[in-house]
Design goal:
Length: 394
């Protein structure tokens, strides 16, 4: 393997785990996909519960997945990375690790997290006997809840209003209180922010979004500097059967090579589109952390490296009727619930990501019937603006 420690982010994403000399016979530039489900191994590692790093059976570990994990460790600046067959599988293993350790009595979830995350935490917490509550925004409420919790789950940028919690304050407070901070970094990706290197205990990411980047593979990541958390999560990954498939691990390795390039491009396009939307007479509000008008712009500016990602949410003046009209009229942008890939997608949070929340809570979080979430892809910015212009109607 070429030693890329200390090199730039893009060099680490291209050469992070494989260099032609790895396979001395053919010297391929691209690694093979190891489809073998079983591996020859000395009798000593045939134990019931696998240990971190064992290689004998692909439900526990697989060489293509290990290559992906090695690359991600370099990018996340974390000692341990484990890859899963979805973001939810990654989160499940982390939750089981914490909630069945016997040390977690109280878990807090940021109010605006991805709705299935809330549902999963609620269910796993109640099964394990731990108490569960939601808090923040407002951020004072979140910090106060963290000081009384054993584990807190937050997102770097939270869907759909892209709220950014005061992560530095949270890490500082939790260092004192002993609360473990789990950060879902899906909306930022390590190209914009690396929670473990800043003081977060665990990073969870849906690889499905920016990291795979091409809408063609589903995956999840857990990254940490704690060997204990990594070992527990590894055991749960094996017991729940949540490891990434080799083909998806390969597609993720391929996506990673262009991650920074794509994040730079979508961040630029999203800012341009957000500024254009802010001036549009039919738009009443725009949420993009890169705009000075965003409630958490200063926090985002201090945490991130000048990029703010590719998701822009905006509220149209005619409420639900106006929002549905835009969805109906877009021609280049596709109505679809996901984000983070090469194609621009438009979703309607009121009926998709946040439909499970009580109406009064949706309204207090800014999720109104006129709100749309746009995930900017790699199309030319002027084509996206033209499409939005005709869809908004003048
Ligand atoms: C912020 C966030 N976290 C986690 C997930 C779950 O990821 P996956 O769909 O890969 O299971 C999603 C999915 O949309 C998400 O938006």
């Amino acid at each position: 393997m070429s030693d890329v420690r200390g090199r730039g982010f893009s060099t680490r994403s291209v050469w992070g785990s494989w260099y032609p000399g790895e396979d001395e016979k053919y010297e391929p530039i691209i690694p093979p996909i190891y489809v073998s489900t079983v591996f020859r191994h000395p009798p000593g590692i045939g134990r019931l519960l696998p240990r971190l790093g064992d290689l004998k059976y692909s439900r526990e570990n697989n060489p293509t997945v290990m290559l992906l994990e090695a690359t991600l460790c370099g990018l996340e600046e974390a000692s341990w990375c484990l890859c899963f067959n979805s973001g939810m599988a990654a989160l499940s293993s982390v939750l089981f690790s914490f909630l069945y350790s016997g040390r977690t009595r109280r878990v807090t979830v940021m109010r605006l997290v991805y709705a299935p995350t809330r549902l999963l935490v609620e269910r796993v917490a109640s099964m394990s006997g731990a108490s569960y509550n939601v808090a923040g925004p407002p951020w004072d409420e979140l910090l106060e809840a963290a000081s009384r919790s054993d584990v807190i789950i937050v997102e770097t940028m939270a869907n759909p209003t892209l709220r950014v919690p005061p992560l530095r304050e949270l890490y500082g407070l939790c260092r004192e209180s002993g609360c473990k901070v789990v950060v879902d970094n899906t909306f930022a990706s390590p190209a914009i922010y690396r929670p473990v290197s800043e003081g977060g205990h665990v990073v969870v990411e849906s690889l499905t979004k920016y990291i795979v980047g091409h809408n063609d593979a589903i995956g999840g990541l857990v990254a940490t500097n704690s060997r204990e958390i990594a070992e527990e999560t590894y055991t749960w990954r094996s017991l729940l059967g949540g490891i990434a498939r080799p083909i998806d691990a390969y597609l993720t390795l391929r996506g990673l090579k262009t991650l920074k390039l794509r994040m730079e491009r979508v961040s630029r396009t999203a800012k341009e589109v957000a500024e254009w939307l802010e001036d549009h007479p039919k738009v009443s509000r725009v949420y993009y952390p890169g705009l000075p008008s965003h409630p958490d712009h200063e926090t985002a500016r201090s945490l991130f490296n000048g990029m703010y990602g590719g998701v822009v949410s905006f509220e149209v003046k005619d409420g639900q009727e106006g929002a549905l009209r835009v969805i109906d009229r877009v021609k280049t942008i596709v109505p679809s619930p996901s984000f983070g890939a090469t194609e621009s997608l438009l979703s309607y949070p009121e009926w998709s990501s946040h439909r499970e929340l009580p109406e009064n809570e949706r309204r207090s979080l800014g999720i109104t019937p006129g709100l749309l979430r746009l995930s900017v892809g790699l199309e030319d910015p002027e084509d996206l603006i033209e499409d939005l212009s005709q869809a908004l109607g003048g």
